[in-house]
Design brief:
The structure is a single chain. By secondary structure, the protein is mostly beta strands. 0% of the residues lie in helices and 52% in strands. Strands 2, 4, 5, 6, 9, 10 and 11 form a seven-stranded mixed β-sheet that branches. The chain has a four-stranded antiparallel β-sheet with strand order 1-3-8-7, with no helix packed on it. Strand 9 (91-99) and strand 10 (107-108) form a beta hairpin. The protein is globular and about 40 Å long.
């Protein structure tokens, strides 16, 4: 199984980025997909998730209304649209896959850096 994130970079406060995570060698539509982030000196934290069918989404309060998670099961890809970015959103962002019937995220990407700075 491979998860490959892309789309990170440097953006000014108030700007937007769209992260992508392409999955391979798994039955993508059988997995809940999540986005996590790890800021310098902090532990990795959950940010958003989307159900296997895409019909349900979940967000932590700090990103609700600014971030939007979506998926394209035909392309085995999950996205994270990030708007109105703040300096505190600076982190390495990871996507992860959890079996729809499971409790733990089993597969992780390598991460993509997002830096929000003027």
């Amino acid at each position: 199984v491979q998860l490959v994130e892309s789309g990170g970079g440097l953006v000014q406060p108030g700007g937007s980025l769209r992260l992508s995570c392409a999955a391979s060698r798994l039955t993508f539509s059988n997995y809940v997909m999540g986005w996590f982030r790890q800021a310098p000196g902090k532990e990795r934290e959950f940010e958003a998730a989307i159900s296997a069918s895409g019909g349900n989404t979940f967000y932590v309060n700090s990103v609700k209304g600014r971030f939007s998670i979506s998926r394209d099961n035909a392309k085995n890809t999950v996205y994270l649209q990030m708007n109105n970015l703040k300096p505190e959103d600076t982190a390495v962002y990871y996507c992860a896959a959890r079996p729809a019937s499971g409790r733990a995220y089993a597969y992780w990407g390598q991460g993509t850096q997002v830096t929000v700075s003027s």
